[in-house]
Amino acid sequence: MIFQQFRNEGCLSYLIGDENTNDCAVIDPAKEIEPYMKAVEKSKLKLVYVIDSHSHADHITGAGKLAQKTKALLVMNENVEKQRKASEGKGDLIYASTKVAVTRWARRHAIRSDWAGAGILLNIVAPGLIQTPMTQAMIDDPKTMENFEGLLPMPIGRYGQPGEVAELIAFLISPENSLMVGQVIYIDSGSEAVR
């Protein structure tokens, strides 16, 4: 497996490739697509999917341009347009709570012989609002949080902590997880259950 992370204007993007099938995907490309084009060329893999799971205002995507230029299939969150309309006039309020495109890809591929058959138990961790330095300014702004909580309520009444997500991931990659594969695990204060 090939995995490369890109940091662009505060957002992360990824190239994930399979050396057995010679296919790869780019997830959440930023506006400038040249770094992805070069990485795909260097990997000698075929770009099959461009996955855009970001639909919030602080991510300017290059997904459409990259898919068009490479003839890759563009996969997007089915709620993107609704979320973009909801965010109009609200700055960078909206951050997609689920990354539907990534979860669909992972669930479809997790059960394949090159993942589950190779002993790789692929699952998705879907965190809600986690209190980190990146989210602190949003958390500290009462108006932003009022809007956010209206869209994604937190029934247990608190934000997540990085250690809580880390513990879940530690379990998922540990020998104790010998059966869970292709699952989406929400760690989001109950937000997904409310929706």
Radius of gyration, in angstroms, nearest whole number: 17 Å
CATH class designation of the largest domain:
Alpha Beta
Spatially, the strands of the biggest sheet line up as: 1-2-3-4-5
Mean pLDDT: 81
Low-confidence stretches: 89-98
- Based on secondary structure, the structural category is alpha/beta
Total strand segments = 7
CATH homologous superfamily name of the largest domain? Ribonuclease Z/Hydroxyacylglutathione hydrolase-like
Helix content: 25-40%
In total, the number of domains comes to 2
Distance between the termini: 35 Å
| CATH-defined fold name of the largest domain | Metallo-beta-lactamase, Chain A
CATH architecture of the largest domain: 4-Layer Sandwich
The description of the largest β-sheet is: 5 strands, mixed
Helix count, DSSP H or I runs of 4 or more residues: 8
Strand content range: 15-25%
Describe this structure in words.
- It is a single chain.
- With 195 residues, the chain is α/β, with parallel strands linked by helices.
- The chain folds into 2 domains: 1-120, Metallo-beta-lactamase, Chain A; 123-195, NAD(P)-binding Rossmann-like Domain (Rossmann fold, 3-Layer(aba) Sandwich).
- Helices cover 36% and strands 20% of the residues.
- The chain has helices at 34-43, 63-70, 80-87, 100-110, 133-140, 142-151, 162-172, 191-194, and strands at 2-8, 11-18, 23-27, 46-52, 73-76, 124-127, 184-187.
- The strands form 2 sheets. Strands 1-2-3-4-5 form a 5-stranded mixed β-sheet, sandwiched between helices. Strands 6-7 form a two-stranded parallel ribbon.
- Helix 1 (34-43) links the parallel strand 3 (23-27) and strand 4 (46-52).
- The longest helix is centred in the middle third of the chain and has 11 residues, at 100-110.
- The protein is globular, with a radius of gyration of 17 Å.
- Mean pLDDT is 81; it is low at 89-98.
